[in-house]
Design goal:
Rossmann fold, DNA polymerase, domain 1, alpha/beta, 2 domains, globular, 241 residues
Length: 241
């Protein structure tokens, strides 16, 4: 079946943002005089929890001196706001480039008349910052739907953000393809009825991607895809030749 739309995750998919997120969390903790410092290995495990605020809560709730949920939440909101400010400052300054093949894929899809959309559980401010630091804020206009953490209450692996994107696009899932980097993303896309292509990264490599059409190192490998992904994306692949 021909492809009408590509729906992209953001963190880890469009750009290797996870390390920038980790550094921003640690800076926010230091500024708040907290002894927490998340290592790469710790953060890899914490990424199984979707959402930055939820990640802080999951970590804090396991500590022996953790307060009750209500007392915890106000402090989490403050910490997350500080972390977001640090992260967006870094990303807007161009410190986090797009992953290989991403810009070419977006441009060739547009040339082929394929609709673009975003379905992410990161905050809209983070999406805006990434584009400001890479393709420019105007490139957000390339996307017919931009669904973020503010769009859907339930985060991945729940399908809500993908269902919201499909509703905004007015397209059935059979005519769309999701592009993800994580197991949670695959589960969310598949639960929404979407086929999904995975571009794994250093934080998600080795995860269980069962149900994905294909798993690539990055989007420069699109031309090597076997059917059915290549046949779905025929016009887009032709546009890059």
């Amino acid at each position: 079946m021909p492809l009408d739309a590509l729906i992209f995750d953001v963190d880890g998919t469009l750009a290797d943002t996870e390390e920038a997120h980790r550094r921003a969390f640690n800076l926010a903790f230091a500024q708040a005089d907290l002894p927490w410092r998340w290592s790469v290995e710790e953060y890899r495990v914490l990424l199984d929890v979707a959402g930055g605020k939820e990640r802080i809560r999951a970590y804090w709730s396991q500590l022996p001196d953790a307060p009750g949920p209500e007392a915890m939440w106000d402090r989490i909101l403050t910490l997350h706001a500080a972390k977001t400010a640090l992260y967006t400052e870094a990303v807007r300054s161009g410190q986090v480039p797009l992953r290989p093949g991403v810009e070419a894929t977006l441009r060739s899809a547009r040339d082929a008349g394929i609709t673009l959309a975003i379905a992410t559980t990161t905050s809209r401010v983070n999406v805006d910052a990434l584009f400001e630091g890479t393709l420019g804020a105007g490139a957000l206009g390339w996307f017919s739907a931009i669904c973020t953490a503010e769009t859907a209450a339930k985060k991945k692996p729940a399908p809500d953000v993908y269902l919201a994107a499909l509703a905004q696009l007015g397209l059935p899932p059979a005519r769309c393809l999701a592009v993800e980097d994580s197991r949670n993303g695959v589960l969310a896309a598949r639960a929404a009825g979407l086929e999904v292509l995975v571009t794994e990264n250093a934080y998600t490599r080795g995860q269980d991607f069962s149900g994905a059409l294909a798993v690539l190192d990055d989007l420069t490998g699109l031309h090597a895809l076997p059917d059915p992904p290549a046949s779905m994306m025929g016009p887009m692949l032709d546009a890059t030749r």
